[in-house]
Amino acid sequence: MRYILFFLLYIFFSSAIFAQNDARPPERNRDSLGQQKSNNREQVAKGERMRQDEKTVTIEDYKIISHARDTTFLDTTLTIKKEYKYNYLRKDDFELMPFANVGQPYTKLGVDFERFSLYPKIGARAKGFNYIEIEGIDYYNVATPMTDLFFKTTFEQGQLLDAMLTFNTSERLNFSLHYKGFRSLGKYQYNEAESGNFRTTTNYVTKDGRYRLRAHIAAQDIVSEENGGLINKEEQFESGDDNFTNRIRVDVRFTDAESKILGKRYYLDHSYKLLRSQKDSSSVERTALSIGHKFSYETKYYQFQQSAQNDYFGDGLLSSIDDKANLKTMFNEFSLEFNNLTLGRLQGNISLYNYDYFFNSLLVTATQRIQNQLKGEEIALGGSYSKQFGKLGIEGGVKYNLVGDLTGSILDASATYKFDEKNTFRLGVHSSTSMPDFNFLLYQSDYANYNWQNTSAFEKEKVNGLRVNFDSEDWGDLSLDYTTVGNYSYFASASDILQEGDQEQSAIKPFQEKNILNHTKIQYRKELKVGSFALNNTLMYQNVSQAHNVLNLPQFVTRNTLYFSSDVFKKAMFLQTGITFKYFTSYNIDAYNPVLGEFYIQNEEKLGGFPLFDFFINARIQQTRIYLKAEHFNSSFGKSYNFYSAPNYPYRDFVIRFGLVWNFFS
């Protein structure tokens, strides 16, 4: 916690030092979805402009650049979308169901099989929701120093803080420092969690625009106690007994286990224009030829520790448990890009990927010999193309593996047609082949049941998908995803049965489904507005066609928010208040295994089918957004408690949480 406090003070005093003038970005016109109305922008911005080096500075000069080089600008409005993103992950969690404490796993209510990388990851997917990958890092280009502070209360003895400072030394060289950390004791026994995510970035372009560079360093750790869930849930939880409404009295399975993810990464992406034509009267560069290079080096491990072997996971090879899977990767990509205003953008690249996934020692037993390392290199060729033809835009990318056994290929292609400012249609296809995560292929544990080597038995997963999107301001946003998956990899009990009340869990093992799996997902979003009132709706339908029940998902998920928005106190404050309802149909929710940090399928217990109601009051005063929420206020309605995030892991009880997001400008 002292690191969080130090960083908060550093950000605060840095802002105070830089803040020579009372400078604020221009306030932007609000609508219910947070979109900016350009026809009123000049009127809204009047009287709130800043001056720097005799240049007018507006909110649009505070640019946020994603990994895919999509550029947006800072948004200080208060909208219902901001309410949906005001959580631990800082993104809309419609397709997720959190566990009882912050920083714990999320149950997936929806899936997306589309791959962004050719290469397998370390695994422990249930623990990695807050682990920020390369694609999740943003870069900045700002006119003056800017600070973003996010604060939210947690569950007993802790808080969540996300603080970012971005500044520049010149118009062409920008830096950022970003730290996100939290600690939460939780409501149940042995349920504490904490994490720290540090990132620093730089974004640079030379005066003549020939050379561009962006880089980041990330250091992250996620630590949580593992209590194994409830062991007397009928008596102590579902019955609603007043003696156990104080959840610290509820019995849990473990009081001596802990899991941890730690990772460090160094990333560099730079390019140089060898040839380029002079810009025309519209300041658009007509032709350019560039070379580029991307580099990343990352070390990461997942560790599970338990002070004493527990029969619930079977026999132990040692009296205490200390499992640790390590992964070191290095990636280099060299590219050549031709960009022409008439012909489009065409890029070719070649990449080298080195990996080392390892455990500390070989494992030799009377029945098996498990190696301790998977090490090698992958060489791949790739290319991409994009072009805008009036209202029609096309883009695509492909990578094909030449050397190595982990990957095969990845293909993405899409076409976008913009009918007008309000209506857009997009069609996309995706195809990929790749091995599953490393923990499916090789794993070692001090628990005898959790040791395997499947490098020769497992085949590459094959994913083929079609996506259709139609976005309309008048009719709403509709998306359709259809995906087929071959050799789908999953974890399951060796007997595929976990009986209620068993004191020993059947061994969890990795499997592959040889039959083709078909997944359909339809999602619709639409907001209805009458005066100051609005009803925001998100609905999702899913269907899975499969020979065996290896992918369990709810058939229907809905989230509906009825809310009121208005300026108050002579427009000194903007207020937004309402009620959110969320519901998903009951299904066989995957169970959680802390030894692996993974979910595994179970087909014995259907959960879900309970409503979730939240009440919120949010306000905006200048650049500060204040949030107050009564989460799951209907939890005590009725005579029994049946709300679970996973088997034996309850969802959250009623709790009131508050916080704010605050932007400083200098």
Summed up, the helix count is 5
- Rg measurement, Å: 26 Å
Q: Kindly state the mean pLDDT as a whole number? A: 89
Low-confidence stretches are 1-23, 26-54, 497-503
Largest sheet: 22 strands, antiparallel, barrel
Structural class, by secondary structure, is mainly beta
Q: Please report the distance between the alpha carbons of the first and last residues.
A: 28 Å
Strand content is over 45%
Helix content: under 10%
Globally, the shape reads globular
| Number of DSSP E strands | 39
Write the layout of secondary structure elements.
Elements: H1 2-18, H2 41-45, E1 50-52, E2 55-57, E3 63-65, E4 71-73, H3 80-85, E5 96-98, E6 106-108, E7 139-141, E8 146-153, E9 159-170, E10 173-184, E11 193-205, E12 211-226, H4 233-238, E13 257-276, E14 287-306, E15 321-340, E16 344-358, E17 363-364, E18 369-370, E19 373-389, E20 392-403, E21 407-418, E22 423-434, H5 438-441, E23 442-443, E24 452-453, E25 461-472, E26 476-486, E27 488-493, E28 508-513, E29 517-530, E30 533-545, E31 556-568, E32 573-584, E33 591-593, E34 598-600, E35 612-621, E36 624-631, E37 644-646, E38 649-650, E39 655-665
